[in-house]
Amino acid sequence: AQAVSGTLLPVDSGDGAVPSPLLRQDQLLERLDFVVRSIVELRKEVEELRNSLQHLAVEIVGEVRTHLEETQQVTRRRKFPFTRDRSDSTGSSSIYFTASSGNANTDDGESEGGYTTANAESDYDRESERESEEGDDEVSCDTVRTMRRDSLDLVPEDESPLVPDSSLEEGLGQLLEQADRLHHGDEQDKREGFQLLLNNKLAYAGQQEFLWRLARAHSDMWELTEDADERRSYAIEGKEELELALQKWDQSAECHQWFAILSGQVSEHESIPKRIQAGYVFKEHIDKAIALKPQDPQLYYLLGRWCYQVAHLGWLEKRTVSALFEAPPTATVQDALQNFLRVEELSPGFSKAGRVYIAKCYRDLGNTSAAVLWMNLASELLGNTKE
């Protein structure tokens, strides 16, 4: 006990007292306590800063969305009814399952090699140069998406930076009207429509009517672009949008229609077996779309194109398909003719190209007088497509 007491008391050494081990421990504990208190205070400050950043991110997203909506209202020249207007050509919907080896189908109806999907009637001349968006009020799509993605990372799972559902539904109708109008417009309109839908994807990604229009816009961009890699990218992205949509809305005719079209567009950049498989996918989803929407002339036009091309497969192509698949696709010129006539029955003068194909079917069946009649009827319709 005396030894321990001696070690705990200061010892005189002439110049002053030397701190004992007990004093050193007290100082150390005091410093540790100070550090702990500092850490606690720092943690509180970090939490307050984090909450401030979350609120700031919500405000930024709200301001960007408000700015985009104001921009859309400024650029809107007039109100359009919420309908899907028909044009005299099939536009970007004219994607079909076809046989092609790179050579165009001749007037003699000669067979074509291989399988592919194509767009035979484009409503505009394709240009390689992609036009940039103009005006100070237009916001870059990539910037908006990056800002929104970063802001979502800061927001807890139980909080949402989006505006209330009532506000979203209120703006959805106007957005769909404008998207439909731009889709039926010229090349610049289609580009603007694609950008418009991309800018609003975060807000309306859970809406069926929005998603199939977004996929349709990807198909439009596929047609406007000549670079092979960009075309494939647009088609794949649009198809992926609809793959998710069909898991929730399998009863949507539009989702099936544009999934078929985009599947064909993707297959143009794939191998021959994948093109063949895409033909089956195309037919399957067009049939489903017709079952869901039997009064849509566009669907019968697409099916007619598919039948016409399958009917003109040559011996070599049929043998190739038979070697790869147990049940090769079958269709006759008569099948194609019935589908094209169904288009005229539902909507007379729906498509200039549709009447041309009726004439081609009658020609193949040996009815020359009917073929001439339908070619004259086709010439009465206005049209500015390459075909």
From TrEMBL:
Residues 76-144 are annotated as: Disordered. GO terms for cellular component: mitochondrial outer membrane; mitotic spindle pole; nucleus; spindle microtubule. It is found in: Cytoplasm, Cytoskeleton, Spindle pole; Mitochondrion outer membrane; Nucleus. Its main location: cytoplasm. Belongs to the RMDN family. Pfam families: RMD1-3. This is Regulator of microtubule dynamics protein 3. Residues 95-106 have a biased composition (Polar residues). The gene is Rmdn3. Keywords: Coiled coil, Cytoplasm, Cytoskeleton, Membrane, Mitochondrion, Mitochondrion outer membrane, Nucleus, Transmembrane, Transmembrane helix. SUPFAM superfamilies: TPR-like. The lineage of its organism: Eukaryota, Metazoa, Chordata, Craniata, Vertebrata. It is a single-pass membrane protein. Residues 130-140 have a biased composition (Acidic residues). Residues 32-59 form a coiled coil. It comes from Grantiella picta.
